[in-house]
Amino acid sequence: MGLTLLFSLVVFFCFSGVSSSSQYLTSMFTLGDSYIDTGNAPVMFAPVMPVWIDNPPYGQTFFGHPSGRFSDGRVIIDFVAEEFGLPFLPAFLAKSSNVSQGVNFAVGGPTAIEVGFFERNNLVPFKLVNNSLDVQLGWFEEIKPSVCNGTEGYKDCFSKALFFVGELGVNDYNFIWMSGKTEDEVKTYVPKVVETITTAVERLINQGAVYIVVPGNPPTGCSPAILTFRMNPNKTNYDHIGCLRDVNRVARYHNMMLRAAVSSLRGKYPHARIIFADFYEPVIQVLQNPSVFGFNNDVLKACCGSGGGAYNWDPNAICAMAGVTACENPATYVSWDGVHYTEAMNRFIAKGWLNGPYAQPPIKSAVRL
Ligand SMILES: *[C@@H]1O[C@H](CO)[C@@H](O)[C@H](O)[C@H]1NC(C)=O
Ligand SMILES: *[C@@H]1O[C@H](CO)[C@@H](O)[C@H](O)[C@H]1NC(C)=O
Ligand SMILES: *[C@@H]1O[C@H](CO)[C@@H](O)[C@H](O)[C@H]1NC(C)=O
Ligand SMILES: *[C@@H]1O[C@H](CO)[C@@H](O)[C@H](O)[C@H]1NC(C)=O
């Protein structure tokens, strides 16, 4: 039964997306982290550290060169933009771009909660770059006058725009885990992360946003990097896939609270279309049934990495460092560099958010009036 259902989903994904009938959206504005960054991180990080993603093999699959994305090709919002006939979103920090059809504020490494909170509470073992959600909202507010110039008030300006707020939270929890906190301690920060995301969504709605996608967290306990950092000999800490149970429990707890928060927002702002995008289930589905979706069975191995073993990930020799190359066929891998997904995985997630079943409601049904 399970397989039949999965096959019909695959067929559905293959045929949907062929016609991009809906030209309804005028623009996209996206906030988030490295999963959807399209070039902000290289600008922001270049002055303080080497930027590996500016080297091949990043970008090799689609762009043919590094594109500022943390992947071999397109990221989730690229597939969404394509679906609506919009250009790939320029990165805000690249400045030179024409932002009339939207701009991407997402950047590698941000927390949802403002960075000062982590510093004041000793929740991070190193200095954070100041690029959290509130900073990204500030960037949005900074360019708003130029985007909306000529329109009567901001409300009309964004009524046909699609916003993304997230994914966020993965970095908050990763940093807190890395500072040595227990699972129960990490969980105590979930309400604050969710509230920060909720407040950001409200701030956008108050400025005229109507269509807003709020993605949850992926199963970070299945990422080759986290699996390597938190490797331990106790088998009961791993699930049937080989993922870390504690890290994934925090992700699921976050998702449950965020889903509930989105539901309350819908009640509070009935005119808005707030979409909860499930980032957890599509990844788990592929990890559990890789061959059904065209992926290989080494689902916990990074395509671009070194070190071999179960995860092919070595923090001292990561993707694009000297001598570290990509696998033969990235399209059959889930993880590109041990932290971020391959274009193939990003496409699967994007289609699931656009058409269902991994978004409530699916983006395409939400924006078609
Ligand atoms: C920006 O792009 C839009 C649509 O592609 C176009 O209509 C507009 O003239 C452009 N503006 C500038 C300043 O290039
Ligand atoms: C981060 O940047 C924002 C906006 O530029 C600023 O208000 C805030 O004080 C900064 N936070 C830190 C910790 O530097
Ligand atoms: C708005 O447009 C007018 C005329 O096109 C221009 O003079 C002005 O500088 C623009 N303002 C902003 C904030 O872009
Ligand atoms: C293994 O982990 C489980 C659950 O985290 C714990 O209850 C058990 O005591 C651990 N076993 C060993 C040998 O450390």
UniProtKB/TrEMBL annotation:
Say if the entry is tagged with keyword Zinc: no
Which domain of life does the protein's organism represent?
Answer: Eukaryota
Tagged with keyword Signal: yes
| Pfam families membership | Lipase_GDSL (PF00657)
Protein name from the UniProt record: GDSL esterase/lipase
Keyword terms of this UniProt record: Glycoprotein, Hydrolase, Signal
A single Gene Ontology MF term assigned here is:
hydrolase activity, acting on ester bonds
| Gene field | ga05617
Q: What InterPro entries would the database entry show?
A: GDSL (IPR001087), SGNH_hydro_sf (IPR036514), SGNH_plant_lipase-like (IPR035669)
The similarity annotation says: Belongs to the 'GDSL' lipolytic enzyme family.
Q: Where is the signal peptide?
A: 1-20
